[in-house]
């Protein structure tokens, strides 16, 4: 799947799982639907208060 990231060299391998459902677009229209994993969405994302750090 495209949300599994594998990195490493030698005997050390690191595997991470990304959840793209929590991503917030940089420019958002007020009528855009919220795309998120329902059980894990941050309250500020529901309010449209994304932090772009």
From TrEMBL:
Transmembrane region(s): none
Residue stretches making up the Protein kinase domain: 1-53
Cross-referenced InterPro entries: Kinase-like_dom_sf, Prot_kinase_dom
Signal sequence, start to end: none
Gene Ontology molecular function: ATP binding; protein kinase activity
Protein name per Swiss-Prot or TrEMBL: Protein kinase domain-containing protein
SUPFAM superfamilies in the cross-refs: Protein kinase-like (PK-like)
């Amino acid at each position: 799947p495209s949300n599994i990231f594998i990195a490493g060299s030698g005997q050390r391998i690191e595997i991470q799982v990304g959840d793209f459902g929590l991503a917030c677009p940089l420019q958002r229209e007020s009528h855009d639907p919220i795309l998120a994993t329902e059980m894990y969405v941050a309250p500020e994302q529901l309010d449209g208060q994304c932090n772009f750090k």
